[in-house]
Amino acid sequence: MQNITMEGIEETRNSLKPVEKPSQDQNNGANKNGFDKKNYLNDRLEKNQDKKELIIRLLPIDKDSKTPFKIIRMHNVKVPTEIAESGWKKYVCLSETKDIDHEKYGNKCPFCELRYDAFKRAKDESLDKVERDKWYQLGKDSFPQDICIIRCIERGHEEDGPKFWKFTIKKDGTDPYNLITNLNDTRREEKKAYGLLTDENWTLYDVFTGKDLKVIITKEKQEQDSKAKATKRGISIMDYGPEGPASVDQTKIEQWVNDEKKWSDVFTIKPYDYLSIVLDGEIPFFDKNEQKWVVKEKKSESDEKQTEEQAENANQINNNIEKSVPTSNLDNSDLPF
Fold first, then answer.
1. Contacts of 325 by beta carbon, 8 Å cutoff, 6+ apart
2. Do the Cβ atoms of 65 and 2 come closer than 8 Å?
3. N or C: which end of the chain has fewer CB within 10 A?
4. What is the pTM of this model?
5. How far, in Å, CA of 7 to CA of 202, rounded?
6. What are the residue boundaries of the structural domains of the chain, listed by start?
């Protein structure tokens, strides 16, 4: 059974590279598990809720990993409300996300292709400055974001098994990835200072000798002007309870760590042709006869009644459809709760 180690944590830390700041001179996937809300850590504040507390225990991101973190790249895209009520949705970048099935999905990403073309046009001296500036801004807006996914057990809901938590990594370090890794570094330094760090690979997340984490999510009001107030999510994370195993039952720990579900099973990866349709502001529709994604508006009215979700539930497309999960209006979640 794999455990979380500092070696694994450092590999994750080293994989994070700053997004390059450009100079202005310059097949279908199968969601084999389907959507099940038990697969996700629900960090959403409800409409009238100002605070929420979650107790979690980190697990290796999969059964063969030494880190609880997975860093992927995603594009935040404006989409029709039929796809996401908020009008925005994140999609996995096919060219800049490592460890996905590139033989299946390829290495081409339509959003990255748009970025390259936009920056090229921004340098075209035959265009006036206003138009070049518009292309430059479009290129900047097309950069993918660093996204972190964590696998964990939610206390009070251990029967659900491993859950996944996805969020954006922020430059100001206020995201869960930075908060958790900074807390780990602090606890390691404390142990060193008191001569208690007997294993250089010890981490706060160790499934046998680590600790739980308390996640506190708050709704903070900020005054914009004398009449209006804006709402902002705040988050804090601290270690919780005594050091010890994730469960008193070692068999249960092994079951959690060796669970076969991967992040890509619960956060769907969309193929190139699907993403190209979304890029054009259209709604993708899977044509069963042609076995490919097409623009929904081009189908007949009777065909349009067959939605993507219905096609998946009917299991009539050789298990090649991924269910599109509706997005919420939260920055770090694509989940409908």
1. 35, 268, 334, 335, 336
2. yes
3. C
4. 0.78
5. 10
6. 6-19+59-206+249-282, 284-329
